[in-house]
Amino acid sequence: QLTEVSVLGLGAMGSVLASTLLDAGRSVTVWNRTPGRAPELAARGARVVDSVRAAVTASPVVVACLLDHSSVQATLGPVADALRGRTLVNVTTTTPNESRALASWAADHGIDHLDGAIMAVPAMIGSGTGQIFYSGSRAAYDRLQPTFDLWAASEFHGADAGRAALVDLAMLSGMYQMFTGFFHGAAMVAAMGMSAPEFAARQAPFLAAMTQELAAYAKVIEGGDYTVPGQQSLHFSDLSHLVQASAEEGVDPAPIAAVQTLISREIAAGRGEEGLARVYEGLRAGGAA
Ligand code: NDP
């Protein structure tokens, strides 16, 4: 069982990752660019070092939880030689291509590399909720999964290092559009005096119920036949009235206008009788109707 881990980056997320490892009795070495972050980790037995090199050489497994790809490059670039033969787990949020670039750099330097994408806020780490996706070295994942499971449910997405980040960003796309949809709806009803908490109390159960539709849409997409009976047609889904009502209330219709653009593009292409999920094909075609 792996007992020694080094954690680079003691921000909100890195400090909780380190703390969870300490809770499990692991020997943890930590480093942060700005000294003095997370003093409670030292009090709880973490070894705090003042150089990246000291952190990297302390453990066979190095977890990087920094701000972004460029901070990872700046931090790890000078210690590539010290990382050779060790396993690097980068859970910093990056784009798929940034993850692939790091994987390629790691391969060039004899470093076993895994990319991790965290689907959780710090409070969820170690609490039995949340997920972390991994991609890259399968051998490293198999070896480390028991350790990863201390943080959150772990899922391996394949040897292409960019895949975990891709799934992560795809999930966040849905989340941010849902939040923005809520902001837009709340702005619309604010015009008639409904408070945001009042609207949230109505919107949350409605959206929760609507998520049941995702599986049905997914089945249509998988079948690839948007004429299967029982689908809500694109004509029926025309949102012109929603865009108009938003504008009439003095509320920027931009979020829903973006959806309407996708729907009207399909209708204009003569597919109005097909199901709403046909929008998926338009997106996959890169915007070509
Ligand atoms: P914080 O802003 O709390 O911490 C950022 C960390 O990065 C700090 O340790 C900071 O060090 C370090 N850092 C920033 N720039 C550099 C640099 N150029 N060189 C070295 N170190 C640097 O962020 P989080 O801990 O919340 O997030 C860390 C990563 O985890 C991010 O990629 C984030 O997207 C991801 N993540 C976070 C989630 C969250 O809910 N917090 C959820 C999912 C993913 P210093 O103290 O010196 O500034």
TrEMBL record:
<dbReference type="InterPro" id="IPR051265">
    <property type="entry name" value="HIBADH-related_NP60_sf"/>
</dbReference>
<dbReference type="InterPro" id="IPR006115">
    <property type="entry name" value="6PGDH_NADP-bd"/>
</dbReference>
<dbReference type="Pfam" id="PF21761">
    <property type="entry name" value="RedAm-like_C"/>
</dbReference>
<comment type="similarity">
    <text>Belongs to the HIBADH-related family.</text>
</comment>
<dbReference type="InterPro" id="IPR048666">
    <property type="entry name" value="RedAm-like_C"/>
</dbReference>
<keyword id="KW-0560">Oxidoreductase</keyword>
<dbReference type="InterPro" id="IPR015815">
    <property type="entry name" value="HIBADH-related"/>
</dbReference>
<feature type="domain" description="6-phosphogluconate dehydrogenase NADP-binding">
    <location>
        <begin position="5"/>
        <end position="154"/>
    </location>
</feature>
<dbReference type="InterPro" id="IPR036291">
    <property type="entry name" value="NAD(P)-bd_dom_sf"/>
</dbReference>
<dbReference type="InterPro" id="IPR013328">
    <property type="entry name" value="6PGD_dom2"/>
</dbReference>
<feature type="domain" description="NADPH-dependent reductive aminase-like C-terminal">
    <location>
        <begin position="160"/>
        <end position="284"/>
    </location>
</feature>
<protein>
    <submittedName>
        <fullName>NAD(P)-binding domain-containing protein</fullName>
    </submittedName>
</protein>
<dbReference type="Pfam" id="PF03446">
    <property type="entry name" value="NAD_binding_2"/>
</dbReference>
